[in-house]
Specification:
7-stranded mixed β-sheet; 36% helix; 149 residues; 7 strands; 4 helices; Aminopeptidase; alpha+beta
């Protein structure tokens, strides 16, 4: 059964939820990418810090289960972050959130870009399975792009 999601704008009060979500969903991949390098790991979390201005909280039945952050540029939309709470993963929630961004990109006639840590195979499967293409491999990341029709 597919969960029906909704979005609400993030507020400054969501910081603890989003910070915990980032660590819960990414610590395995961050440690695998930079094993034993605490400085590099800390840098990853610093550059992926919560910004409520470009973040929407993903909800299922009114419960906060994830977040998606996007930045709209003049020539593309960048998916900064998408994180789904571990207990809600593999239920189509991330796909629905990305589908919403695809819909917005179509309306604006803009491509979508994102980056994925190379070791994060579940995210690769999700994005590549939705038609995103790897454009470049750089700094432990795949840089991907989607061209809405």
């Amino acid at each position: 059964m597919r969960n029906v999601i909704s979005f609400r704008p993030a507020t400054a009060d969501d910081r603890a939820f989003v910070d915990a979500l980032l660590h819960a969903t990414m610590h395995e991949y961050v440690e695998a990418t930079w094993p034993g390098n605490e400085e590099a790991q800390r840098h990853y979390y610093d550059i992926n810090r919560f910004n409520f201005a470009n973040t929407r909280i993903i909800q299922v039945d009114g419960k906060d289960v994830g977040r998606i952050s996007t930045t709209v540029f003049s020539d593309h939309i960048f998916i900064d972050e998408i994180h789904i709470a571990p207990e809600y993963q593999h239920r189509g929630i991330g796909r629905q959130a990305i589908e919403q961004v695809v819909k917005e990109a179509r309306e604006m006639r803009l491509p979508i870009t994102a980056t994925i840590l190379i070791v994060n195979r579940p995210s690769q499967g999700l994005f590549l399975g939705m038609g995103f293409k790897v454009m470049e491999e750089k700094d432990h990341r795949f840089h991907i792009k989607y061209m809405p029709t």
